[in-house]
Write a structure and sequence with these properties.
It is built from no helices and 15 strands. It has 207 residues and is an all-beta fold. It folds into two domains: 74 residues, Efflux pump adaptor protein, beta barrel domain (Elongation Factor Tu (Ef-tu), domain 3); 91 residues, conserved putative lor/sdh protein from methanococcus maripaludis s2 fold (Beta Barrel), CATH 2.40.420.20.
């Protein structure tokens, strides 16, 4: 090792280095490993039943335990075969990495098969009565002294799929309406509500 200089073809972080000056090495012996963590390639095993929707360029999100997006990448490689044992298709996606992920780390991902206009509301904003789902929507009102205030009105909603901490609303709400997201059990029609207890809908849905 004293009389030879080995130059890596890439830049990155050196892993374990078991050799020291004076050690003999063999032809093609691995000296160390270098990991590039600035861009990571993620292996995703996609169920074979989704093969017709699996396409290059599909967005892929790495999400945390609450379902919130951490990093977004896209599929840039798809295996032409199905794994016989798992009945899955190997897809690979590239992600930019600013140090939050490590090589060989397991992560939770979400493939965005399709997107479209829609409304998402937090799960904690929903109340359930006799199998029906309701939310409390903010409306203009008046205080006993005649001052303008915000009051709530209960509205029935039809919900679709759950996405992380949110439900998709199929009907019952209009885009931009503000709904109550706290103290739901204490609310009823006409009750005044503070602005910090309200939240506007998120008008994008992923499928």
């Amino acid at each position: 090792l004293q009389v030879n200089r080995v130059v890596a073809p890439i830049s990155g972080i050196v892993g374990n280095l078991p050799l020291k000056v004076g050690d003999y090495i063999n032809f093609a012996q691995e000296l160390t490993t270098i990991t590039r963590n600035d861009v990571l390639e993620l292996n995703i095993n996609v169920k074979a039943e989704n093969k017709s929707k699996l396409k290059l360029g599909l967005p892929v999100e790495i999400v945390d335990t609450q379902g919130s997006t951490k990093i977004t990448g896209k599929i840039d490689s798809i295996s032409p075969t199905v794994d016989q044992q798992t009945q899955t298709i190997l897809a690979k996606a590239s992600f930019p990495n600013e140090g939050s992920l490590r090589d060989d780390e397991y992560v939770k991902v979400r493939v965005i098969w399709d997107t479209g206009p829609g409304i998402l509301i937090p799960t904690e904003s929903i109340s359930r009565i006799d199998g029906q789902k309701f939310v409390f929507v903010a409306q203009p009102g008046e205080s006993p002294t005649g001052e303008p205030i915000q009051v709530v009105k209960q509205k029935s909603v039809e919900l679709g799929a759950i996405q992380g901490e949110n439900y998709q609303v199929l009907s019952g709400l209009e885009a931009g309406e503000k709904i109550a997201v706290s103290s739901i059990l204490d609310l009823r029609d006409g009750v005044p509500i503070a602005s910090e207890s309200l939240k506007s809908d998120n008008s994008k849905t992923n499928q």
